[in-house]
Write a structure and sequence with these properties.
This protein is of the alpha+beta class. 42% of the residues lie in helices and 16% in strands. The protein has two domains: 2-164, Beta-Lactamase, CATH 3.30.450; 182-236, Orthogonal Bundle (Arc Repressor Mutant, subunit A). A six-stranded antiparallel β-sheet has the order 1-4-5-6-2-3. Helix 1 (21-29) runs antiparallel to helix 2 (37-48).
Amino acid sequence: MLQISSVGIEAAIGATPAVSRDQLLHQLASLTTPPDLYSSLRALTQYVGASHYLLARCDVLQDNGLDFVLTSDWPFYIVKRLTVESAATYARTSELEKCLQLFQPGFALLPDDLILPDGTSRQYCAMTFNIGRTRLTLMLLFREGFILSADRLRDVGLLAGYCVSFRQYSEGRSERDFELTDRELECLFWIAEGKTSDEIGVILGISRNTINNYITSVMRKTATKTRSEAIAFAVRNNLV
């Protein structure tokens, strides 16, 4: 993804977004009790001048289906296609790159063969942020010719995290939302200490193959590809 310029130009085509930052904050404050994620994201979308929003959970992007989408007003056929594209991109991204992307707006292109609504730009903007142990991405569609304001994008990235933090995830949470078993956490702790599978097997009194199975399960649940990435993930999320 390409990083946006730090120079903010509100709009090249169309009117400048009319809502000020203070007005936006007042509007969001009125929506947090009871929590209203749809209205909050709609307000943020309008503030930055976007046409559509999609909020997704990065940690379950590698799964099949659309369970990773929390809420969206993108056309459904675009969301369905984006599942494949996003999963492939996320799988190629290292843990260090994922950390560096936090709150940094970036751009990507929708597939060339995807038919978009009239006037919609093929380029979309994405911002990643954490809520506790859950990593989320806010993806925004814009009209063709619209030039984003870097200041407003930064506001939206921070305020999206604020709004989502009010939502109770217990209803729609995935059962594998970092729910490592006690044994998996033990293995994760020992590999973070630099122990091999053989050494961990001796410490825990189980076979090397069983240890490897636990570690494979840890990497699957945390969407990491190597032990080093699993350790980095564990440190970042206070699991060890």
